[in-house]
Structure to design on (366 residues):
């Protein structure tokens, strides 16, 4: 495939992420690029740009939804950097989702600021395909040591209340909004993965997914399962136990919790991802930052910059970006790029195929 042979119709863009309010969060998760106790990101942000807080202006939202609809986008994710329910204009996003018939895919820490879990659920469930709760432990001690500031027992009760509304809405309307647990795979929490699966089944959640740790800080290096061969062997043993747990711990109807992105690592992944691992984002998803910068993936902010500048939504359209030489060159040659060669989000082709097959089954079931 050559650059001249690539056209927008060769792509299958289906999802857009808006990093609406990255500096707004009520927790300090240790692995977070911005809010970790180990992070100096906010200071560097101020030194570089002279600002301490970024927020996507409300007047950008509808034009973005219009472009997304024209591009065939089916889902929009409000900020995964920061807590989206703290975004001042989050209600407008939900309203635009109804107006443009684009579903929301939400990731939240489950603290539900400003409204109760039940009140939020009544707003969220009708417009979402999936609500992903950041759950990083099965016990108070582990969960709260990672998500600093979290009340774990309250989080679990919130999820329980949210799912009750979800199930009631499904019974009344036939629309089923999936509930997932979103995990960061680290050596100080994944020993509890079987118990997290059990907890998800007890709560009637649908899916557990996650990703390996982005090592932003030297204090976290030994927490990565890719830090050494011994850690990779440790992770591969956890994967085996996870699938045993999914067989053992079932939802009330007997169905299994769906496990995604939980697969064995190869021995070479201490340095680079295997050559045959693929990017799940290029040609499928785009990101827009709170300042309007358009990006091809979810890599940490400084790594995204190394991929090149693809434009700002204030000056260029999403269609302009995917038609640009810069984007097409990255699409064709990303495996040679230094950032992509170490990306924790690349995965085996069969795992990407499984994700989209599971998505098709889920969509047909709803």
């Amino acid at each position: 495939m050559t650059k001249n042979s690539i056209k927008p119709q060769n792509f299958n863009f289906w999802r857009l992420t808006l990093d609406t309010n990255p500096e707004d969060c009520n927790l300090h998760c240790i692995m977070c690029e911005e809010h970790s106790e180990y992070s100096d990101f906010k200071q560097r942000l101020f030194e570089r740009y002279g600002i301490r807080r970024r927020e996507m202006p409300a007047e950008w939202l509808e034009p973005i939804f219009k472009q997304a609809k024209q591009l065939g986008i089916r889902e929009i994710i409000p900020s995964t950097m920061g807590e989206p329910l703290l975004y001042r204009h989050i209600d407008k996003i939900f309203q635009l989702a109804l107006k443009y018939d684009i579903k929301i895919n939400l990731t939240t820490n489950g603290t539900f600021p400003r409204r109760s879990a039940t009140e939020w659920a009544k707003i969220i469930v009708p417009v979402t395909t999936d609500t992903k709760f950041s759950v990083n432990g099965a016990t108070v001690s582990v969960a709260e040591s990672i998500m600093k500031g979290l009340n774990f027992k309250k989080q679990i009760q919130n999820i329980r209340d949210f799912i009750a509304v979800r199930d009631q809405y499904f019974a009344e309307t036939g629309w089923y909004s999936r509930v997932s647990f979103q995990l960061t795979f680290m050596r100080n929490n994944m020993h509890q993965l079987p118990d997290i699966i059990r907890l998800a089944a007890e709560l009637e959640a649908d899916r557990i997914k996650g990703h390996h740790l982005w090592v932003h800080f030297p204090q976290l290096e030994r927490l990565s399962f890719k830090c050494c061969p011994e850690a990779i062997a440790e992770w591969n043993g956890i994967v085996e136990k996870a699938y045993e747990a999914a067989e053992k711990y079932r939802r009330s109807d007997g169905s299994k919790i769906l496990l995604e992105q939980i697969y064995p690592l190869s021995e070479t992944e201490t340095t680079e991802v295997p050559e045959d691992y693929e990017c799940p984002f290029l040609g499928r998803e785009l990101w827009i930052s709170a300042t309007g910068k358009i990006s091809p993936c979810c890599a940490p902010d400084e790594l995204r910059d190394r991929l090149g500048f693809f434009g700002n939504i204030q000056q260029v359209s999403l269609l302009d970006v995917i038609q640009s030489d810069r984007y097409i060159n990255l699409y064709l040659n990303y495996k040679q790029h230094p950032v992509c060669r170490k990306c924790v989000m690349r995965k085996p082709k069969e795992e990407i195929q499984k994700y989209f097959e599971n998505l098709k089954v889920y969509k047909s079931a709803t």
Observations:
- The radius of gyration is 20 Å.
- The chain has 13 helices and eleven strands.
